[in-house]
Amino acid sequence: MPGSGRGFPVVLVVQEIFGVHAHIQDVCRRLAQQGYLAIAPSLFERQGDVSSLPDIASILPVVSLVPDDQVLADLDATVAWVGADARANISRLGITGFCWGGRITWLYAAHNPRLKAGVAWYGRLSTPATTLQPLVPLALARELKAPVLGLYGGQDEGIPLEAIEAMQQALQAAGSSSRIVIYPDAPHGFHADYRPTYRPEAAADGWLRLLEWFRSNGV
Q1: 195 CA to centre of own chain
Q2: What are phi and psi of 33, to 5 degrees?
């Protein structure tokens, strides 16, 4: 958060599958530089510490054990905790997330009526439901309680354009003010400046869109 003052709007920052690592911490700092109180809860804590795992193949089994209802409850608890701090103004609440956290952003926008806006970076939209993770963003378009800006790469090998287009159609059919921006040449993870997938122009444009989306929606 900024070094002085109070009543800062609050942004929940939801991690990638890699946990609350340096990149997610840096996103929080960047938001603080824009006047926000940004907070990134560690949402895999009960299932395991992914920071010490060597690769994606070893991380995914841990992630698969994280229940949707646990994540939503933990985000609610995070809001309640930070709301007790006079420096926070949770009446101006936003959420953003990346990859795994992008999906969670859609879910939380359908969950919390107090949310003002969300920005979902390349979160999966139509992955099959499981017992622990039964919620599918594509099925929640009519349940969104806050507008979501989706930022997606046209070259994302894990999220086909067909899924993105289906979500766009579902949002339109629901009369939602949410919208999706597609960067045609960007792969998955284009905001992750520590990975080869980083695309500076798309990342910078997406960041400016995030700031405008939050400000225009009361965050």
Answers
A1: 18
A2: -65, -20
Q: Catalytic residue at 191?
A: no
Candidates 188, 191, 193, 205; catalytic one: 188
- Marked catalytic residue, from 68, 99, 111, 191: 99
In the residue annotation, 156 being an active-site residue is answered as yes
Q: Tens digit of pLDDT for each residue in 70-83?
A: 999 999 999 999 99
Beta bridge partners of 179: 149
Please report, rounded to a whole number, the percentage of residues in the chain having pLDDT higher than 70: 100
CATH superfamily of 8-216: Alpha/Beta hydrolase fold, catalytic domain (3.40.50.1820)
Question: Choosing from 156, 191, 193, 205, which is the catalytic residue?
Answer: 156
pLDDT of residue 78: 98
Q: Does the annotation mark 188 as catalytic?
A: yes
Q: 19: left (phi > 0), else alpha (psi -120 to 50), else beta? A: left
